[in-house]
Description:
Oligomer: single chain
Number of helices: 7
Number of domains: 1
Order of helices and strands: HEEHHHEHEEEEEEEHEEH
Strand content: 15-25%
Distance between the termini: 95 Å
Low-confidence stretches: 183-187, 200-212, 293-312
Amino acid sequence: MTARCKKPSVRGFTLIELLVVIAIIAVLIALLLPAVQQAREAARRTQCRNNLKQLGLAIFNYESTYSALPMEKITFKTSKGFYINYNQNWLQLMLPYMDQAPMYNGFNFNLAWDDPVQWPLTTVSVPAFVCPSAPDRFSRTNPAGIPGLKTAGGHVPPPNGFGVCDYMASSGIRYSIYVQNEQSSTPVNIPSVGGLSAILQPPAPATQLDPYDNRWPSVMHTTMVTKLNEVTDGLSNTFMLVEDAGRPGLFRSNKRVQVSGVTTADGWGWADTGNSGALDGATADGVNSNSSTAAAAGATDPTPTCALSATGPCFTGGTYFMNVNSDSEIYSFHTGGAFTLFGDGTVHFLSENISLATLAALGTRSGGETVGEF
């Protein structure tokens, strides 16, 4: 008889074994995915921090050239309302010190930043101005997509929006933070009203208090330069740049909810002369912001009532001053706080739980406060 060779049988996976393998892979993915996400966010946070350091280096290179810190914005006008070659903000002033001199030289500072003639420059995205943790440019509310909405200069926004910026010059501290601090366990003395922000009124060389601008100034100032020796609280005790991410989209609360069909009042782009702000504070949901002046609250009295009295017609009930509203306030997409650049060039991550006394002290350049740990 002829022997028949039997082929060896190939045993496959049973259904149960296959399900077990799939389950093991799923568990591994579930364990590894958060770690990967955390690593990516850590890298984004590092880049966000480095952006501020780069901006700080540019600011001090500017100071070395002009022996003064840059203004937060320069918006002098003639008596007829025309700009006189001084319509620019602090970020534009930094361009030559960030290897962007051709871009700076391309601006026409006799025109407003939002003039369509400037669009080839103002629509450009500058990586150093954007925090990677924030939503990308095209995930934010585009002013051009809101019917009838125009820029502060009365122009229709560019179709794809302006180049965005997630960092803001801190121009000072409003009275509202002192109102809330009085109710805390660590009250701080309110700085002298004589220290309120003054503005330069050209062509007269004198300065005067601006009744609509009741803030105690920080390192950078509107229309006036600041010498390093004017920061009497100490450069290491005063922040000058803060995160204000997500603009021009309006984000509210620490849940990072973007309000549909609404934009911030300013900060629509990195060249926006409104890319600065004083801390006003808001309610936890970010809906109600503290008013900076009586006029802002609808009253007819233009005096700085909120700066002089807690009984004025201004709303000062907002008790939160970080990560509750992205409209010219400290706002980030990091968990628990935001990055800030101090006058000595260091970058600190300030906690959302920082005391109001400490935050107020860090936000003024000559308030005379004693700053503890932060």
